[in-house]
Design brief:
By secondary structure, the chain is α+β, with helices and mostly antiparallel strands. Helices cover 63% and strands 12% of the residues. The chain has helices at residues 2-28, 126-171, 176-196, 200-227, 237-244, 254-284, 290-319, 321-329, 334-337, 341-376; strands spanning 43-55, 58-59, 67-77, 86-93, 106-111, 119-123. The chain is globular. The protein starts with a helix and ends with a helix.
Length: 378
C-alpha cells in the first residue's frame, strides 16, 4: 500500500515537472500581436532624490489635507547601466497623481533618450512589497511548518498556471472559459495532492471542488446572459477593446473566467473540510451508517458555509467600496441602484461563487461517504 502511494506520488511529481517544462517552452516560443499603442523605446529604472531645487507644494484650496504643486528634483539613478548618474527633472504633485518627494525618496523614472532626461513615474514600492511577501511566507511557514510550505508551493503553482498558461491562452485566442476550466482542474488536482497526497479523501475533495467551481461559472454565465451582463459591462471594457484591436485576444468571457478563479479558493477549502471530516469520522467509528456520515458532513458544512459565503460576499463588497460610497452620496433610488452595470457585475460574481460554495457541501459529502465506504470495504 505504502509503495503504491509512493509510486503514484512519484508519477504525479514527474507529471507536474513535465507540465512546468511545457509551460516554459510554451512561453518562450509564444508569439502574438501587441497593442497598437505599446510603448516603444522607453526605459524604466530606479532613482533616489538627492536634492530639491524648488518646491511650490501647498494645501489644495478645496481639500487642505491634500498638498499639490511642483517640485524640481535632483535624482541619482540607483541601478543598472546608468547607476550613479545625476538627472534633473520636475515632479508634478496633483490631486490624483500625488507623489510628493523629499530628500531620500525613491522613485521609478522613465526616459526616451537613454536617461539624458527623465520623468517621475511613481514611488519605488518594491522593498515594501517584498517585505510584506516575506512576512506572509514567514507566518505561513512558522505556523504551518511542513503543511505551510506545501500550501505556499500549491499557491505558487496556481499563480504560475494563471500567469503563464491561462493568460497566454486567452491572448492567442482561446475561449477564456475553456482556458479557465483547464487551469482550475489542473490547479485543484495539484494543490490538493501537495497538501494531502493521493487518497480517497483527496479524490472526493478534488471531484467536489472541480464540479462546483464549474457550477460557479455556469451560474454566472446563465444569469449573466439573463441579465445581459458581459465583460463589456466591466470598467476595463474600453481598454480591452482597444488592446484587442488587430490581435487575437479573446476577452468576451473574461468576466465568467474570473468567477471561476475567485470562487476556487473558497470551494477548495469547503470541499477539503467536508471530506476530511467524513473520513476522520469513519476512521474513528467504522460502524457509522452512511446516512449518519452524510448528515454529520452536512452539519459541519453548514458551519463552514456561513463563514465562506461571508468571505466571498465581503471580498467583493470590499473591492467595490469606493463605488458604493459614491452611489450613497448621490442618494440613488433603489430601482436605479440595483440595475447599475457595475453593481450587477459584483452581485453576479459574489452570489455565483456563494451558490457554488453551498453546492459543494452536499456534493463533497456524498462523494466522501461513497469513497470512504469503498475504502473500508463496506
Amino acid at each position: 500500500m505504502r509503495q503504491g502511494r509512493r509510486l503514484s506520488s512519484a508519477i504525479t511529481a514527474a507529471a507536474i515537472g513535465v507540465f512546468l517544462l511545457f509551460l516554459l517552452i510554451f512561453n518562450l516560443t509564444l508569439r502574438f500581436q501587441r497593442p497598437a499603442d505599446i510603448e516603444a523605446g522607453i526605459a524604466y529604472t530606479k532613482a533616489r532624490v538627492i536634492g530639491i531645487e524648488s518646491d511650490t507644494i501647498q494645501p489644495d484650496p478645496d481639500f487642505p489635507e491634500i498638498r499639490i504643486g511642483r517640485q524640481d528634483l535632483v535624482l541619482e539613478i540607483t541601478e543598472g547601466a546608468h547607476k550613479g548618474q545625476i538627472i534633473r527633472t520636475y515632479n508634478l504633485v496633483e490631486r490624483i497623481i500625488n507623489n510628493p518627494a523629499r530628500v531620500g525618496t525613491r522613485f521609478i523614472i522613465s526616459s526616451y533618450d537613454d536617461f539624458i532626461t527623465a520623468l517621475v513615474v511613481d514611488y519605488d514600492r518594491e522593498a515594501v512589497i517584498c517585505g510584506l511577501v516575506a512576512l506572509f511566507v514567514a507566518a505561513v511557514v512558522v505556523l504551518g511548518r511542513r503543511k505551510g510550505m506545501r500550501s505556499l508551493l500549491a499557491l505558487l503553482f496556481t499563480l504560475v498556471c494563471i500567469f503563464f498558461f491561462f493568460i497566454p491562452l486567452v491572448v492567442i485566442g482561446v475561449n477564456p472559459i475553456v482556458a479557465a476550466l483547464v487551469v482550475v482542474a489542473v490547479s485543484t488536482v495539484v494543490t490538493l495532492w501537495m497538501l494531502n497526497g493521493w487518497s480517497p479523501k483527496t479524490a472526493s475533495a478534488v471531484i467536489g471542488c472541480v464540479t462546483c467551481t464549474f457550477l460557479a461559472g455556469l451560474v454566472a454565465f446563465l444569469f449573466g446572459a439573463a441579465a445581459r451582463v458581459t465583460t463589456m459591462n466591466t470598467p476595463e471594457a474600453e481598454t480591452l477593446l482597444f488592446v484587442a484591436r488587430g490581435t487575437h485576444l479573446n476577452f468576451r468571457h473574461l468576466l465568467f473566467a474570473g468567477v471561476l478563479f475567485s470562487s476556487l479558493g473558497a470551494i477548495t477549502d469547503t470541499a477539503m473540510s467536508i471530506s476530511s471530516s467524513i473520513f476522520e469520522m469513519r476512521e474513528l467509528n467504522a460502524k457509522l451508517p452512511r446516512t449518519q456520515l452524510f448528515r454529520s458532513g452536512m452539519n459541519i458544512g453548514r458551519d463552514v458555509m456561513g463563514t465562506m459565503t461571508d468571505t466571498l460576499i465581503l471580498a467583493f463588497t470590499g473591492g467595490s467600496i469606493n463605488t458604493l460610497v459614491i452611489y450613497y452620496m448621490y442618494a440613488l433610488p433603489s430601482v436605479r441602484l440595483i440595475n447599475m452595470q457595475t453593481l450587477v457585475v459584483e452581485i453576479l460574481r459574489g452570489l455565483s461563487s456563494s451558490v457554488a460554495v453551498v453546492a459543494s457541501i452536499p456534493v463533497t459529502a456524498l462523494l466522501a461517504v461513497l469513497l470512504c465506504d469503498k475504502k473500508s470495504g463496506e
